[in-house]
Design goal:
Radius of gyration: 60 Å
Number of helices: 22
Helix content: 25-40%
Distance between the termini: 50 Å
Number of strands: 78
Amino acid sequence: MVMVVIHDRLSVLRVQERTVERAEETPVLPRRNNEPIHRLSLSNRDWSEMEVPGRQSLSEETGDDDTGGETFREEDPKIPPDLEWEDSDGDLAVAADNGGKRSYAETARMFKLRRNLDQLDCFHRQKEHDVLKAREELKVCRQNIVDLERQRDKLEQEIERQKEEDNSVAVLRLRAQHRRLCEELQREEELEGHINTNLKQQELELCQVEVELGRFCLLRQEVEEEEQVFEALKAQRVVARLQKENNVSQRLQRKIQHVKDKQQAMHKIDESQCQKKIEEAPAGHKKAAKYLKETIKRIHQQEAEKEQQSRELIQRRIQAIESLKSNIAATQESLQAQQHRAKANAQRKEQEERQLRESLQAQGINSIKHMHQQKQIEELQRRKQEFEERQKSKRVEIVAKILQEEQLEKRSKRQEALLFKSAHKDKAPYQGRAREKLLHYMGPTPPTATEERARQQREFSDNSSSSSVTSDTEDLEEIPNQDKKQQILADSLMEAEFSGLWDQNYKKSLDESQAKLLQKEAKQEVSLIPAGKLNMPAKKVVCGKEFKGPPFIGKPDVILFKDFEVGKTYKKKVLLTNMSYTTNYCKLLGVSTQLMDFISINFDPPGSVSPGMACDMQAVFQPMMNQDLEGEVHFASALGPFSVPIRCTIKKCHLEVDSHLIDFGSHVVGQTISRTITLTNRGALATLFSLDTSTCPSPETSQVHMPSQASVNTQQETSGQNTSSCKQESFASKSTGELLSKQESQELSVASQQQLEAVAYADQPSDVEAPVDQSTSDTSSDFSLGEVKDGEIGPFESVQLEIVFTPTIPGEAKLDFLIKFSDSTSRPIPITARGVAVSVPVSLVQPSIDLKICMFDRLYQDTIIVQSSASTALRLTFDVCPEMRKHMEILPKTGFIQAQSSFNAQLKFLPRCSLSETFFDRETGVLEVPVTVQVADQVRPVPLTVHAVVTSSDLQFDRSEVDFGYCSIYQSVKTSVCLTNLSLLPQDFGFIGIPEFIEVQPNDGFGTLLPLETLEMELIFSAKKAKEYHFQLNCKSGINRDFPLSCRGVGVIPPVKLSHSLIQFGPTAIGERSTALLYLINHTAPSAARLFSFVLPEDSEISISPSAGQVLPGEKCLVQVTFRPRLLDKDIREEAVRLLHRAKVLRDQELERHRQMELETKQEVAAEPSKVKKVLQPRLQGKQAVNPKNSKVSVSPKTEGPTTLPGPADIQPGSEEYEEGRMSLLYSFTQRYRQYTVPCFLWDGDPSAENPQAQPTWSPLNTLYLELNCPAIQPPLVATSSNGQNTIDFGQVAVGQKVVKRFTIHNISKESLDLKSSLLDINGPFCLLNALRCIEPGEKHTLLLAFSPALEKKYLETLEVRSPKMTLEVTLHGEGVVPVITASPTGDLLQFGYVLEKESTTQVLTLQNRSAVAVGFRALLTSLCPSRPQSGADSLPLLLRSYTESHIQPVVGTQNYNGLSVFSVMPTEGTIAPGKSQDITVTFQPDHQSVNYSDRLSLELMNKSKVCVMDLKGAACSHNMYVSGGDRLTVPIESLLPPLIPSEQLTESEMLEKPSIPILLTLRGGYSDGAVRPAVRELEVGCIRSMLPVKKSGEFHWDNVASLQQQGFTVEPSRGTVEAGQSCTITISWTAQSGYKVNEVVQVCVPLTLKGDKTEVYSVTLLAWASIPPH
């Protein structure tokens, strides 16, 4: 590796020496759009070739994989490391200009040689450090080896000592430590060898580097000499530059001194002129002082007169205030006295009412109702008196008006005898009729028979209202009484109005019926009280306090369902608070009878409720009829029952106007004035209205109004106000209201709403009606209605009604209007309009002159027309306030107007900027100038107001000067200025006298500005020469005003130019790309190189490559511009929100449609009363049968709450909503056109040697601009899979596996597309499985792409799907991963031990997936493998060898007799998720006794790689005790045939005669140094744990132990007990006796008895001998 690096360094140095000599250009071939670039200009390729080795060596040192290449990349390449110079003085590149001693190539070569030499030195230092580090590690490793060897020797000595002491336990422990220590020592020795090898390699590499350093010694000396020369040359340049700066400084000082001298000369001239003016000033002062004294004297006189007038005014005000104080004091005293009297009267009245209420309650009469009736009677009496007083005042007004008309008639008769002769004849009969009417009005009042009849009707209405309040428990036999009462009411409606036609006995019958009804009502009230509650209840005393009031109070106190609709469900929650002084309970009794079919209560009894605590209930209302309902929810408590009122009201009209009186004030005859009133419907029901001027009711209306039926309305109001106190009455009234028919209830409601008008019209005498109608007809001609006379007013809407007053006769006019409604429950609304007409002899045709909008310094004129109705000529004087005389003038100021003629005056208005602000309205800004017209012999002048909106005529630029900056002669500079019209009038404008190098757009600088409009004007500066430009643009307005704009700019010739400054891309589809090529040409001197950099706009669809670089003198650089249209993220988010909103609207419409269908179904059911009864009757019975504690009825379905739509910021990229918005925009996309202007900054000079990474300073003089026109169109092909992305990510795939994914494309164009694709890498992992075809418009085609990695690395390829109109690029990327699977426990053997036959044991293997991909696995058993040799072919070699060799074992051992595998694995295959683990259970289940059970388990992955291979071994016994550890006596292969005589069939004698089980144990000792080393062997006795009911533990013991000891054998332990599932190790050692000869065999046979579920005897044969080990 070191040699490769050194070779690369040498190649860099050689290439850098040859780079300067290669300056020739390589022509670039033109290419079509969308064609990839494979060639670069020669200069770029030379730079790439020169930099590749350097970059490669640098990447190898730092570990990066990026290497330089010659292929052109679309990404913006960074500046090569060799070109990233620091900011220097800029003289390095122009060294040849200062004497020609050094060139640019020589300087660059020097810097690059120095950099490479420094890198080589750094590499040498790194290698030295690596060698030292390796030596230190080797030293440490050797020290560790020495320490370990010392420890090993100590352990060996300790082992020998323990052997001598015959301590076997310590020997075993020390041997284990010795074994671990040896293993650690071996690892350290291996590490020492590895470190030693690495050290030798490092020393070799260090030697090679030192050799290379020696080879470059001469080159290093040459570089140092060149650096010294360079420093000297740089010092010379510093001295020359310092001298140059000194010269410039001296010239600047001389220039400053010249300017100072010039300023001093100008100052002397100014002083001489000032001295001359001072000498001339005294003469002017003397002349001005004379006039000033006269002016001051006149001002003093005026001030004295004003002061005297102000004193007199103040004195008069003081007197007025004093009189006002005295009046206020007197008024306060009278008011206090009135208040005291009113308070005493109120107290007295309240006391009388209380006494009356107590007396009525003592008599058993409803006091509240009785007193309410009395109040109604008093109210009707008061209204009657008010009506009589209004009638009297109207009579007086009519008489006064008639007298005034007569006087006017006489006066006009004298003045205009000829003109009004015919009119006088016409009005003569009218005067006669007026006198007759006046006599009727002034005559005696009519008899009071009508008043008596009205009183009787009121009494009857009171009786009927009282009789309507009955209990809901009233029997059916009382219904005829109600029918009788209704019959009486109908008879009263049919009676005539005149008392002469009435029966004289009517009053008696009326009194009798009233008495009967009162008695009946009293009986009903008594019957409503339960029998147990007739007595007065005991007082509720708690803790010495008396509790009054209901035990629980509901919040809200009344459950109100307002403006309900049939078919909907409404819910209200009520909080019940314990107001008593003790713990109470609350029990639901039910609701009123009339509400049981509509109201359901959800209430959980809370149990005991402490004082002040609360519980809640829920009332659910489901209306099925459009009718007002009232009732109560009844509860029981420990302190007595209580109830919560319920009111359900339908939609009604609640109509009102903002004013019932319209006062037009005083106006001149002939003037037209309009007023507007607002009619507002505050209810939820729409109705039709009509505005009528008729105040008398029609015959049909009078019939409805005649009978006074105020009882119904009164009863409704009473029940609404006193619900809490009169619960029994409201309960009775509602039950009675249900018995009334629908038609009768409507008639009663109409009559109750219109009771006041009925009483008024009933009380009015018949002989007064004719004069009222006549007076109305006289004044109605002055009033008229506007355009809106009738129409429909919706719920909660307002309507504007206009009433116009046009007086024709001087005097007061008055008229009553009536607003009628189609709703039968809405009463008409009366409106009164009045006005006064005055007659003035001199008047103005236009009392207010509106000059509209006027500009400053412009003259405006208008005509003032004065009319005179006088009989003589009058003198007129026009007076303008002094502040406005400079701006406004009326000509002539004085004139005479002839009798019965008009006079014209000219108004001139010239507003100036000095116009006072006092005449402007602060809110509207309108100028209001009062002008008076004085008429001779007339005290009151005629007012005239001049209105105008004064505005400026200025046009304003947003800046005073435009600086175009530096402009290339090859390009143009465009800037924008805003031209604002400050006037309230539109103005024309135009730029006049524009130079030839300036262009003004739009419309060549001409146009019209609307009021207060701002127009953006584009100024395009195209410099023709390289010089400074100072000029002025002149904007002229339509009124010939000039507005100048100063401009300046500098024309420059850039050293580098673009081959094309405008690029017009072709129509490019979204997701496609278009490319264009251009050149940067450096046409400067041969020694000037230029750096360039393109700066792209933010979020643009443009990329430029290279975006920065260097252009050598006389050469050109190829630049590629790529246009990739895409959809904006903001547009996609907004489209996604719009789609969500649209889906919500459709969903709401569907829900509304379902609601309408349900409502129609309910209405159809409600239309059939029989069906309703059938439906409601079971429900009513069910409610009565249900326990109140469990009465929770939920009628309304669960409705989802309002969902909040997410905003554009909540839509996340990659989400489903985001992709739907993106696809919607693609399908609806038509075309888009955008323009970009990309600046290209240039810099003169070379990089700094100190900091090559520093950012250069770009020159503003040489900036180039590239204009791009980018049209985008809809793509014909769209990817519909992968969330609309053109990227298929296969993710991480295990090496050797194959993953297939689908990619669907959709043809959204209107033409058929023939698809083709590019070729993928043949040796790569990606493959296209299906072919492409021609797809029709609207069709889709699915591509099948497969990814099968062969190596562990990342893959990336691009598949191009080509069509005649676009090319769709699909990016394919994936990563091959080698799966890492670990198995635990580790090892090659899985031992199951001993198991009872026909029982099983399990062990678990855990596979851990440590890779980042899911991995499939399979578990294979050799016994079940199809490729395993059959018929025991694999066991034949075992039979040919010695079966006593323990290491020779068959792979598949003994199998079960039943044909099933003795070993089983679960699961046999599966998949392990990344980072997860999988447990594999191996089960050992033998069916007969054997110790040769074995098999092999292989765990392999899907790519055939092995995870682990384990041998499975186990043994089976027929009894729970076993012995293991002896020498093998039989072959490890047994027959699969079962024994011919099973052990169960043997008799007891045969079992007794059965020989013991033989066990052979061989002990081999060693002989050395004349001594025999002892030999040790072990046997293991175990007890198998079983689920069968057998003996859980076992015992063992050796027989004839003494004979063993005689032969030198020792058994430890000789007997013992083994628990189930445990084992015991028996150690047998042999020590040679004295006189033993080498190779002599000692043999002993000893019985070993095992006692478990069965007693077994093993014959253990011990063979021992000692031999000399071979050398």
